[in-house]
Design goal:
This protein has 163 residues and is α+β, with helices and mostly antiparallel strands. The chain has five helices and eight strands. InterPro entries: Acyl_CoA_acyltransferase.
C-alpha cells in the first residue's frame, strides 16, 4: 500500500489522500463491465500471471476510484490498462491517471528500469494529448513513454513516500 495525492478535476486545490494497493479477488464483482459500468475486463487482467493489478481508493471510502494493470518488460514497465471508475469520468470526478502512473513510475525504479514506463493507448488523439500533458512522449504504434526525468517529477508530485 502506498499513499498518494489525488486532485479533483474542477479544483486542483481540492486534494484527497488515497492508497494504491493490489486488487484482490473480493474486489472483482464491483469492477464488472456488465454490471457496474467499467470498460475493461479486470478479471482477465487479474488472472494474467504476467500482470500486476492495483486499485486506487480514497481514505475513508471503500469505493475503487481507478485501476491499473502493468507488466515488467526488458528495460521498462508496460502499462496495459488504466481506467477511472464510472463516477470519475465526468468533469466533477477525480484525476486518477496522475497518481496511478506515478505509482508505476516508482515500480519501474524499484525494478531497475530507471523509471521508464511505456503506455499502450487506444488510437484516441484526446487520450494521447492527455498522457502527453503528464509528460509522456508519443513514440508511435499507439505507445507513449514516460522517461526518467518525468517519472521523477510525477513521483514527487503525487506520491507520499515515507509518510
Amino acid at each position: 500500500m502506498l499513499r498518494v495525492k489525488v486532485h479533483r478535476k474542477l479544483s486542483k486545490s481540492e486534494t484527497f489522500t488515497g492508497n494504491v494497493e493490489p486488487l484482490n479477488l473480493d474486489d472483482l464483482p464491483g469492477v464488472s463491465p456488465s454490471k457496474h459500468g467499467w470498460f475493461f475486463d479486470w478479471r482477465t487482467e487479474f488472472n494474467n500471471p504476467r500482470r500486476e493489478v492495483y486499485k486506487l481508493i480514497i481514505l475513508g471510502s471503500p469505493d475503487i476510484q481507478g485501476l491499473i494493470s502493468f507488466e515488467y518488460d526488458e528495460g521498462f514497465v508496460l502499462v496495459r490498462f488504466l481506467e477511472s471508475s464510472p463516477d470519475n469520468r465526468n468533469r466533477w470526478g477525480l484525476f486518477i491517471a496522475h497518481p496511478l502512473l506515478a505509482f508505476v513510475c516508482m515500480k519501474s525504479f524499484e525494478s531497475g528500469n530507471d523509471g521508464i514506463v511505456c503506455i499502450e493507448s487506444k488510437i484516441n488523439p484526446r487520450l494521447i494529448r492527455y498522457y502527453e500533458s503528464l509528460g509522456a512522449r508519443y513514440i508511435g504504434n499507439n505507445r507513449l513513454v514516460i522517461f526518467e526525468l518525468e517519472s521523477i517529477r510525477l513521483r514527487k508530485l503525487y506520491l507520499m513516500e515515507g509518510e
